[in-house]
Amino acid sequence: MKKSQPPNKTPQPGTAFLAYSGYDLRFMFPVLFLVGIGMVMVYSASSAIAVQKIGNGTYFLKRQAVFAVLGIAALVLCRHFPIRFFRFLTYPLLILSFFFLVLIQVSDSGYSAGGAVRWLRFGSFSFQPSEFSRFVLVEYLAYSMSRKLDRLEDFYIGFLPHVMVLGIFIILIMLQPDFGSAVILGAITWIMMFVGGVRVKYLLSSLMMGIPIVLLFLVSADYRIQRVIAFWDPWKHASDLGYQTIHSLMAFGTGGLWGAGVGKGYQKLFYLPEPHTDFIFSVIGEELGFAGVLLIIGLYVLIILKGIKVAMDAKEPFESFFALGLTAAMGLQVCVNMGVALALLPTKGLTLPFLSYGGTSLVLNMASIGFLMNIGAKTAKNEQLPIVSEQ
Question: Which of 31, 203, 303, 382 has its C-alpha lying 20 to 30 A from 66's C-alpha?
Fold first, then answer.
């Protein structure tokens, strides 16, 4: 009986760096590049608004810089937080998320913007509970599905409990109301259950039953009907219902191939609503042009593809599901925000990850990247361990 020598394997490019430093450049470069571009574009898009409302053109830039520092701290913390312990926080985080969503409705801490109560404010600190709920739902689904891996095809084990938790989240979020976030949560749950092996007939049935509910909800309020009308024919309602969509498209149209130049766009000058948050992609299109848009899309593609690879390579079911959910949540948010800016989807108040102004979104998305790197580093480190066999 003797031990064989470790196989003489040459690590793939970047694997050694990933295994021993834990900070994968294939994540770090596109993420930090996007955060840097975001700070420049937030300043460009918000300076005129900040001067008019606050009297300080750098107000939003300074706050975004603070958010970026907090985001980097969250990334580092989540990169080194033991994943095996994180799963034990599932139910405390779930309860905390429900508590925040209820608190926003029953206390004076909730405040509104754009007609919806979506933020909690404690003194000078504020955050958006729906963003936190998205992260918590992913963690809950990953934990629950990994424990029930061999029974996910059972309706009462693999499908019903997850849909019930989703339903509670959706009801609380719709009270704000925040239809866009509710749809994102439903899509994330559907994707994770589909990949996990929940019976397709259950998923399709829930989808078919959900469509009439969504349609009924859309026609239950005048402003939602108006958004749908504006989506179908924005040019016919350019001065009212389609105002946002028209000016967003005008921003892309005037950008051309190379853009008007950073700081030289016109649509952000009180024509395009929320240019530093929901419609920052439109400002990018005008000032950086088609080339800048392609660059941004390319950086997101790199992040999403890397996230999918981390999910596929992970050795433990919880880590695989968690990485999948985080990647899906980020990818869906990117697609919805860009779809709205390009008039491919009705107007929804969702930020663009790493680029839009906003602390909750930036910190939680960077925390997600930290967890993805954590899982990827653990997988790479395990692959570097010598293989010992007996003869």
Answer: 303
The Cα 388–Cα 121 span in angstroms is 56
CA–CA gap between residue 134 and residue 287 (Å, rounded): 32
Q: Which residue has the higher pLDDT, 19 or 171?
A: 171
What is the distance of C-alpha 83 from the center of its chain? 20
pTM flag (> 0.85): yes
**From CA 147, how far away is CA 309, in angstroms rounded?**
22
Confidence class for position 110, pLDDT limits 50, 70, 90: low
- Model confidence band, residue 22 (pLDDT cutoffs 50, 70, 90): low
pLDDT in tens, 124-148: 677 888 889 999 999 999 999 999 9
- Written as six digits, the tokens of 131 are 């963003």
For residue 24, CA distances in Å to 18, 190, 301, 342 come to 5, 29, 16, 32
Residue 331, judged by CB atoms within 10 A of its CB (0-12, 13-18, 19+), counts as: buried
Answer for the pair 368, 134: CB distance below 8 angstroms, yes or no. no
